[in-house]
Amino acid sequence: MTAEIYTLDAAARDFDRVSDALAFLGDHWQAHPDLDAAAAAAGLSPHHFQRIFTRWVGVSPKKYVGALAHGAARAALDDGACVLDATFEAGLSGPGRLHDLFIAHEAVTPGEARRRGAGLDFVWGAAPTPFGEAVFLIAPRGLSALAFADPDPEGGFADLEARYPAANYRRDDDLARQWAERIFAAAPGEPIPLALYGTPWQRQVWRALLNIPAGATTTYKSIADAVGSAKASRAVGAAVGANPVSWLIPCHRVLASNGLLTGYHWGVDRKRAMLAYEAARG
């Protein structure tokens, strides 16, 4: 019992110190304070501070500041700022550092984030599938997105539209139903044309996903190895999460390193059902 009380007391003390550090970083993140400055604000040695901050917040102080900077830069780009202005908004010394920040957090460059689908023409519609109502985004050259949206297809479309907010859209549910039949009632191996609008890095990861056989699973680390970047599991995770074409580009076959079903954009229950459906069909 004594050990339990001590642990709770220590946790309370750590929380107070981390709270002070969060307030300091919230006020000064644009200056990108180093570990020594953040530790001083918490009244701790740098080593001790790094340990308790990471335990409480889930990321290091440096990554926390990076997330704040990325959020500010992303908001500036979404509001129409140029890359240079977004760089200064994030408190960075030059566009090169902003480029690195966006690659780390989104696996896209600032310029790619800023274009937001300008010049693209899409037809969208809703149709039933074996895994619930889905929304289809169709470009002249093929399918650009398939998102499960049961019971809210309009909400599903809003999710896809947010990926390409500057694109042009019109609705055609009959065309979506044709695509649903083509995808889910097709003979095995029948090619489905895809028109993917992602970065070169994202498309590389998506091609690796296409190589996972039906009924099989893999891990984020294995995908990183497959694209020749063994230390890039975080960026691989971002690219997998940005996959716009569910089912056909099988991100549902990617599991956590411990084998758990985690991190599926369209719901873990649906991911489990998809894997069971594939396993049952052999």
Provide structural commentary.
- The structure is a single chain.
- The model is unreliable at 1-6 (pLDDT under 50).
- It is built from 13 helices and 6 strands.
- With 282 residues, it is of the alpha/beta class.
- The chain is globular and about 65 Å long.
- It is 55% helix and 10% strand.
- The strands form 2 sheets. A 4-stranded mixed beta sheet has the order 3-2-1-4. A two-stranded parallel ribbon has the order 5-6.
- A hairpin with a 2-residue loop joins strand 2 and strand 3.
- Helix 1 (2-28) packs across helix 3 (46-57) and helix 4 (61-78) crosses helix 5 (83-89).
Features:
single chain; disordered N terminus; alpha/beta; two-stranded parallel sheet; 282 residues; 10% strand; four-stranded mixed β-sheet
Summed up:
This protein has 282 residues and is an alpha/beta fold. Helix content is 55%, strand content 10%.
